[in-house]
């Protein structure tokens, strides 16, 4: 029995290692092409490692940063991601706490509406959303976070609600007996307990907001504001030519922050997902 379990474990390790390499391989291809000159990418094998003639060093990265206002696009992506994720974490954790503790008809309807929002395809509402965003002046990087709150609330409320159900009510009652107001109970008692779920949900929401292309393109003025995914589309020259080297370097610059964030916080993702989906 033990040998069978070890054999199964070894097979699964090999299988998942191969799957991981398959997922990492496209990123590796982008990396090696970001180090080639544009002519080598378009005329030679894109899967070939850079050689002495095709090796462009960091010229593509320098060009990607200086061309098309890439640093400004990076700043807009950071602002949108940080403000949106913070707003989602605060509002949705409070909403989940309200849903679990009040547990009346209104809170149940509100919860199911949040879950239902996860099912509605974005394409069904994108044209109405663009018009509404223009009317409400939500078409700048500094207030588009309100729109992201609406679309990100479903997943966040679902995960937070599942975890809050596992928190004993006696802990909150003890805090209130000690003189804590509801807000103090939320910030000093609930938030520390919710830490694994907050971190895991924040990572998932950050990956979504940071890489999102369609929503900013529909809502923002592309002449004034361009996030990194939007800016990557504009590495074009005359007659439709594309600067592939600079584009590949821009993609790497876009991917690296999310990879670093995920590597540092990956253990919290499993903890938070399990806590939010199983407990309660």
Order of helices and strands: HHHHHHHHHHHHH
Unreliable stretches (pLDDT < 50, length at least 5) are 276-280
C-alpha-based Rg, rounded: 23 Å
Strand content: under 5%
Q: Any idea how many domains? A: 1
Give the number of DSSP strands.
0
Count of helical stretches: 13
Distance N to C terminus? 34 Å
Q: Give the full name of the CATH homologous superfamily.
A: MetI-like
Class based on secondary structure composition and strand pairing = mainly alpha
* CATH C-level category: Mainly Alpha
> Average pLDDT, to the nearest integer?
83
| Coarse morphology | globular
Using the coordinates shown, work out and report the CATH topology: MetI-like fold
Based on the coordinates given, report the CATH architecture. Orthogonal Bundle
- Major sheet description: none
The oligomeric status of these chains comes to single chain
Instruction: Estimate the helix proportion, in percent.
Output: over 70%
Describe the structure.
By secondary structure, this protein is mainly α. 74% of the residues lie in helices and 0% in strands. It has 13 helices and no strands. Helix 4 runs antiparallel to helix 5 (105-117), helix 5 crosses helix 7 (145-164) and helix 8 crosses helix 9 (182-193). The longest helix is centred in the C-terminal third of the chain and has 35 residues, at 244-278. It is globular. The protein starts with a helix and ends with a helix.
